[in-house]
Amino acid sequence: MNPQVEAAFARLPEYFAWHVLLSASALGLGLLISLPLAVAASRNRHIRWPVLAGASLIQTIPSLALLALFFPLLLVISAASEDLLGYGFSALGFLPALLALTLYSMLPIVRNGTTGILSVDPAIIQAAEGVGMTPRQRLLQVELPLAAPVIMAGVRTAAVWTIGAATLSTPVGQTSLGNYIFSGLQTENWVLVLFGCAASALLAMVTDQLLGLIEAGAARRDLKRAALGAAGILIGVIVALTPLISFGKPASYTVGAKNFSEQYILAEMIAERIEDLGGEARMKEDLGSAIAYRALASGEIDVYVDYSGTLWANVLNREDNPGRQEVLEALTKELAERDGVLVLGSLGFENAYALAMRQDRATALGIESLDDLARRSASLTMGGDLEFFARPEWTAINEAYGFNFRARRSYQPTFMFRAVTSGDVDVISAFSSDGRIAADDLVTLTDPRQALPPYDAVVLIAPGRVNDARLLAALRPLIGAIPVEAMRDANYSVDRDADKRRPVEAARALSQQLGLD
Amino acid sequence: MADPRIALARVTKTYGAHQALADVSLEIAAGEFVALVGASGSGKTTLLKTINGLIVPDSGEVRIEGEAVAALAPHLLRRRIGYVFQEVGLFPHLTVAENITITPKLLGWDKPRRAARAAELLELVALPQEMGLRFPAALSGGQQQRIGVARALAAEPHIVLMDEPFGALDPLTRDGLGDDYRALHERLNLSTVMVTHDMTEALLLADRIVVVADGRLIADGTPQALAASTDPEVAALLAAPRRQAERLRARLGEIA
Ligand SMILES: Nc1ncnc2c1ncn2[C@@H]1O[C@H](COP(=O)(O)OP(=O)(O)OP(=O)(O)O)[C@@H](O)[C@H]1O
Ligand SMILES: [Mg+2]
Question: Are A421 and A321 in a shared domain?
């Protein structure tokens, strides 16, 4: 078998188990909340509209945004509970994913539940009262059984939605089948992306069929059929969850990573070093850029690599640029004072924002610096990664050089490189350690006005781990040990189209090359 | 004197501007069989439903065996009163036998007792025992109506309210069922209020006929007393069966 597919299959039991646990819990919780809501909405005309409108409104929020919004919300609630009750809870991972998916599953159940109950023949409702049923008996013995097929149809829709949307829980730190899709997108490993999509689609289809059996059973009052469907679901969930019994035990260290190749490679390196010294390491990959630091500060993750300029602008909200060394020193001091976070040190290379162009095009236009670029910008198109134009760095260079681009476009990083090599855009935002700069024949433009802050890769340690001797001993040898060329090569070995390495392989090769193993 | 089984005192019910019941007072004793007749929309169903609390009057009072309906738990009251709906309203997800014994089940009767009761009632309404296992959708309209009657009688109530219970039956079955019910009524000393459009049926089965028009009771008496009434509306109601009987005699006489 293809080694990529083999590697994908190896992770399937864990990813699948989390995906099933997450979807099943969200659907169960959604049902638990939605059914009483549907009953209330069918009973009371005045709350019907607000309930249905509220559920529809949730549906209009893009599911990825809904998932992301729960992180800060839970962080605030967790801090409050820490203050009031003395204990907090994890604001990352399972909880935000569960809550967002639960909300997401509600609309079809509430809507079908309300319609189902309301469409029971009034003559039958009156007969239920006439034979002496209490309102509760009427609901349980007449209305719900008669509405069951319609309600089950809603549950089916909700299940398919939930299973699909659960792939989006990867960026908030919850393992799911989405891990295949997100890391596949990042490393341009389409086999992995397809694998993740197929697995989640298959799960949705099988679930839909089993719930369909229950629905048909309810509609035809065929108890055997319904029981068969229910048993199928139950057995499926139990079998899917068995791997979690071993995978689920808490790891001693959680290593965070944002969503690009360099981060995966460095996280693998860190994890390997922790394991070499007898610790257990667990990865939390694909964290959003803004989420990662807060996750560290709140102890959700124990260690990750960030970049000095990012922390300077996003965490300390600074816009000035006092120089590389000063930024590093100020960060070390202020993050320790403010959040108790330890900046262990710089890895030795920078992954700075830089603007890059095709070599031939830059030569033809006579562009070497951002000053040159600014003079020509009116006839050029600029491409940025998804967050670039919203970042302070963009504001800073824009103010310093006064760009006036003909057009601006945002891309997923891998597509951004495609766009510049194909000539769809003239200049892109890139990172200085990106292996594709050399591989795609791009040049980075100089920044004579020093508008872009420095971006030293720094190792950050969570407040609860700053005195953890084993962790610090495992990580100290990395400080100052990775030159930018080595990092670029490692990144490229993962990003390139042919003969791709997996991040874990690249990490091993890098350690070997640098004599760190 | 003992309390009447059913007593309505100055009951009114208004829907918007329409007065469905206007100051209705009525007393029905144990063992009485009352037929409620009147034009469509005159308020018969409304009157029947105020008796078991399905409709709450705007004013006035309803008493059952001396107790004010407004003060009773509605579900407990209704388990004591059999009700046959104009629309029948069988539960489509329950078998015929389960439909028949729904009130006994709510009252906590055990399974064997319910099964025996279902068998007994299927026999009373002249339907084969195997029908008990079917679902209502697999029954004809007339058969469903008979199950509706069986369901009303299942918990052995003293009071039975029937809203056009035999409307969808052929004349022969209707006659037979009417007679059988009348016998049961006498044997168990029931109080029965039956709404019917069929004046002949009312005259043949009931001890007492109450005529409703525009939410008012315009006549109340034995069939004989009604026949002697000089009220033009009542006379008009009785004219139809009389004329039919005369024409029948004439035609059948001719044939013979
Ligand atoms: N829920 C309601 N809302 C408004 N009007 C109603 C309602 N129920 C009954 N009515 C009106 O009250 C009047 C009496 O209705 P009721 O059902 O008692 O008539 P009925 O004598 O049983 O007629 P039928 O012989 O056609 O069954 C009718 O005019 C009817 O339109
Ligand atoms: Mg009626």
Answer: no
